[in-house]
C-alpha cells in the first residue's frame, strides 16, 4: 500500500512538473482596465514584433507581423502577414466571431477546428490547435494564447505551445496599434 502511494505521489509530481500547476484564470483580470476588445483593438492597422523560444529558453525565431482588421458588427476579419528573421514570409487570415454570450470563436486555414476564447478586463485568452510549418513538415500543436491590453496602443501577448500536453515552447509578441 505504501509503495502504491509513493509511486502515485511521484507520478503526480512528474505530471505537475510537465503540465504546470495552477496557471492564470481569466476572471482574475475582470476588474483590470483598459478592456481588451478584440474587435475594437484589431480593427484597422496593427504591427507586432515577436519571437518563439523553445522549452529550454532558447530563442529560435523572431518575426514581424503586419495586421489589418475589419469588423462588420459580427465578425472580425484579421489578416496577418508574417516576415521571419530568415526571410520567410507567411500569412494567416482569421475570421473571429463574437458570440451572443460575449465569447469568441475563430477560424483560420491552419487552425484545426475552432479557436475558442473570451475576454475579461484587460485580458483575452483563447485556445486552439494549429498545424505549424517546420523543417520536417507540419507539426500539430496546441496554443494557450493570452493577450493583455496595456493602453490604447499596446497589447502584449504570451502563448504557451504544447504537444501531447508537454510544453514545446512559448511565443511572445508586442502589438502596436497604428494610426489610420
Strand content: over 45%
Q: What do we call the CATH homologous superfamily? A: Calycin beta-barrel core domain
Which CATH first-tier class would you pick? Mainly Beta
Please give the largest β-sheet. Answer: 10 strands, antiparallel, barrel
Structure summary, number of beta strands = 10
CATH topology: Lipocalin
Helix run count: 2
Order of helices and strands: HHEEEEEEEEEE
- Looking at how many chains there are and whether they match, the oligomeric state comes to single chain
Shape: globular
In angstroms, what is the radius of gyration?
A: 18 Å
- Report, as a whole number of angstroms, the end-to-end distance: 68 Å
Structural class of the helices, strands and pairings?
mainly beta
* Helix content estimate: 10-25%
The CATH architecture: Beta Barrel
Give average pLDDT, whole number.
Answer: 90
Number of domains: 1
Strand order of the largest sheet: 1-2-3-4-5-6-7-8-9-10
Unreliable spans: 1-21
Amino acid at each position: 500500500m505504501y509503495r502504491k502511494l509513493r509511486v502515485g505521489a511521484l507520478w503526480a509530481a512528474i505530471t505537475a512538473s510537465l503540465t504546470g500547476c495552477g496557471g492564470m484564470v481569466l476572471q482574475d483580470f475582470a476588474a483590470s482596465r483598459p478592456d481588451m476588445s478584440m474587435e475594437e483593438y484589431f480593427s484597422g492597422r496593427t504591427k507586432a514584433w515577436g519571437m518563439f523560444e523553445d522549452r529550454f529558453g532558447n530563442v529560435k525565431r523572431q518575426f514581424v507581423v503586419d495586421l489589418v482588421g475589419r469588423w462588420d458588427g459580427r465578425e472580425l476579419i484579421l489578416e496577418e502577414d508574417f516576415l521571419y528573421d530568415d526571410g520567410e514570409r507567411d500569412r494567416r487570415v482569421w475570421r473571429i466571431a463574437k458570440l451572443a454570450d460575449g465569447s469568441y470563436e475563430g477560424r483560420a486555414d491552419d487552425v484545426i477546428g475552432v479557436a475558442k476564447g473570451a475576454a475579461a478586463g484587460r485580458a483575452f485568452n483563447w485556445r486552439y490547435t494549429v498545424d505549424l510549418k517546420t523543417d520536417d513538415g507540419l507539426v500539430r500543436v496546441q496554443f494557450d494564447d493570452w493577450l493583455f491590453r496595456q493602453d490604447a496602443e499596446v497589447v502584449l501577448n504570451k502563448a504557451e505551445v504544447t504537444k501531447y500536453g508537454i510544453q514545446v515552447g512559448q511565443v511572445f509578441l508586442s502589438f502596436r496599434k497604428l494610426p489610420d
